[in-house]
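Long-time lurker. I teach an intro course on protein structure, and each term I like to show students one example going from raw sequence to a predicted 3D structure in token notation. This year I'd like something fresh instead of my usual example. Would anyone be willing to generate the tokens for the chain below so I can use it in lecture? Attribution to the forum is fine with me.
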Amino acid sequence: MLVLLPLLSVVDAILDLLRYFLFAYIILGWLEAFEIINRYNKLVYGIHNFLFRILEPILSRIRRFLPDLGGIDLSPIVLILGVMFLRGLIVQIAIRYAG
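-- Reply from a regular --
Happy to contribute to a lecture. Here you go:
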């Protein structure tokens, strides 16, 4: 039990970081779609490429189970809900073993 709480803390931090990356990916996609930022800029391309490589393997697996809604992609919402669920589960486990 001595190792469990620090391990849960690390997993929670990783999930929190994943959530921030997902929000950045969504906002960057909107900014590119509405042509507010130039997607061919080296910095924008680098950030987009980094976020794409981290998140797309997860999002593509989620998309397999979702119905095709045309141009609407619900996989980021499902991922956010999944991260929220896992973080709540981690908190409950930490409360059970800490007290």
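Some talking points for your students: Residues 4-33 form the longest helix (30 residues). The mean pLDDT is 93.
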